[in-house]
Design brief:
Length: 441
């Protein structure tokens, strides 16, 4: 229904909610934006997990889900039988929550992380799950009595929602685009044409060139925030640039044999931006940008190049790449209405030459009843088909690095801390920026 967007959530006019329920009765994804539709069709998922001092049971998890739905009413959308904005009945709460007893909490959260394909197995259940593992003997020496995990379709939640829920704050979405801020007609036409072209090229090349499905894995790493802050100051770069550089340099490997590229690492990264325009998606706050990082053996030179590259991109244009992919989502959805078999399964394994996706989510700081008892580090990440992803989740004391990647890359994750140790011990001269970047700053 073109008259609806994801802004039609709980708390708005009752007439709108009646029409919303009528729309989803015909098509459970009727209120999804094109971006949401794309992530739903791709079976993309996100996760949040943390240890807790609480001893959870089914009733406790049910109460937590009720609070989540009240704060993020978009969780009531997207499944057969959905009643947008309405609390879940008990049989749905029971179906999407689970508690298991374990002897110890060693190996968590990594042993829990997965593609979360089970979320999509039943069309009549909400598109998220909440689970807890409780230690039989009570809290361990670190005070951890349990570990909890929330898994969701990415169509319903993004990193900013997770950060808001962690603070027990409202995470509902209004219309995220700014209809009054219209980009120049030429820019809009260019973005639309690029998006439509990219959609058809992706289907064509995806069908022909998509690689075989690769062995996949998940891993997490927690680093103290003060270490990253001190080293970034020492190197004269942004903390974000330092994190991007640590991950891409370590995962690419040393010497002649590079796992990603010998010359240029193609990266997509995300940011939040308050300067919205009419071409932005109506649901998602996040904006994606594309970057190319030239491969260098010396890490100090490399991290400073990454910092200069990011500075240059964000001072020039932070809308064109997002406009293009939004247009791609729109064209794919229209094509799918005409030919439901498109895009095919191979399409989702085609990444267009992007080696890695780097996502920095807003700070996750526990506050209020939603996260009472939860202990840092807090882990938050995503799975997208064929996309090597590192999600950076900052808390008060730690930043967690959450990897969803081909197995071959995970062997280098442990080298990140070794690289951090090595650079901390080096004597480093001041950062001399190129004149063009200096002017941009």
């Amino acid at each position: 229904m073109k008259s609806f967007s994801s802004s039609s959530f709980a708390g708005q006019h009752s007439d709108a909610m009646v029409l919303a329920r009528a729309a989803v009765a015909r098509n459970p994804q009727a209120l999804f934006t094109d971006f949401q539709w794309f992530l739903y069709e791709g079976r993309d998922t996100v996760f949040f997990t943390a240890f807790s001092t609480n001893h959870y049971d089914k009733d406790g998890l049910g109460n937590m889900v009720a609070e989540m739905v009240a704060l993020a009413p978009q969780l009531t959308h997207g499944f057969v039988g959905a009643q947008p904005g309405q609390p879940f009945p008990k049989h749905l709460l029971d179906a999407i929550t689970s508690v298991e007893m374990v002897d110890d909490l060693d190996g968590y959260p990594d042993k829990w992380l997965s593609k979360s394909e089970d979320i999509f197995e039943r069309k009549d259940l909400p598109l998220f799950r909440v689970m807890a593992a409780v230690r039989r003997g009570g809290p361990d020496e670190q005070g951890r009595a349990s570990v909890i995990q929330v898994r969701s379709s990415h169509a319903l939640l993004e990193g900013s929602d997770s950060a808001l829920l962690t603070r027990s704050a409202t995470a509902g979405h209004g219309v995220q685009s700014d209809k009054k801020n219209r980009l120049p007609l030429g820019d809009r036409l260019k973005g639309a044409l690029r998006g439509y072209s990219f959609a058809f090229m992706s289907i064509l090349f995806g069908t022909i060139l998509a690689p075989k499905e690769q062995p996949w894995g998940f891993k997490t790493l927690a680093i103290e925030r003060h270490r990253l802050r001190q080293l970034a100051n020492k190197l004269g770069v942004r903390q974000r640039s330092l994190m991007f550089a640590l991950v891409t340099h370590a995962l690419n490997g040393k010497g002649e044999e590079k796992l990603m590229s010998k010359t240029v690492i193609g990266a997509a990264y995300t940011m939040l931006d308050t300067k919205r325009n009419s071409s932005d998606d109506d649901f998602f706050r996040v904006r994606a940008l594309a970057a190319k990082f030239a491969v260098m053996d010396d890490f100090v030179d490399y991290v400073r190049m990454v910092d200069d590259t990011v500075a240059g991109i964000e001072q020039k244009d932070i809308t064109s790449f997002q406009m293009m992919i939004n247009s791609m989502f729109t064209s794919l959805r229209k094509l799918n209405r005409i030919a439901p078999f498109l895009p095919g399964k191979r399409f989702w394994r085609f990444n267009g030459g992007t080696h890695i996706v780097l996502t920095l989510v807003p700070p996750h700081r526990t506050y209020g009843p939603m996260t009472h008892g939860m202990i840092e580090p807090i882990y938050c990440g995503a799975w997208h088909s064929a996309a090597n992803i590192c999600t950076f989740c900052p808390g008060r004391e730690y930043v967690t690095l959450n990897f969803s990647m081909e197995q071959r890359h995970l062997v280098n994750v442990d080298k990140i801390v070794a690289l951090l140790d090595e650079v901390e011990a080096r004597d480093v001269g001041p950062h001399t920026m190129t004149p063009s970047v200096e002017r941009l700053r």
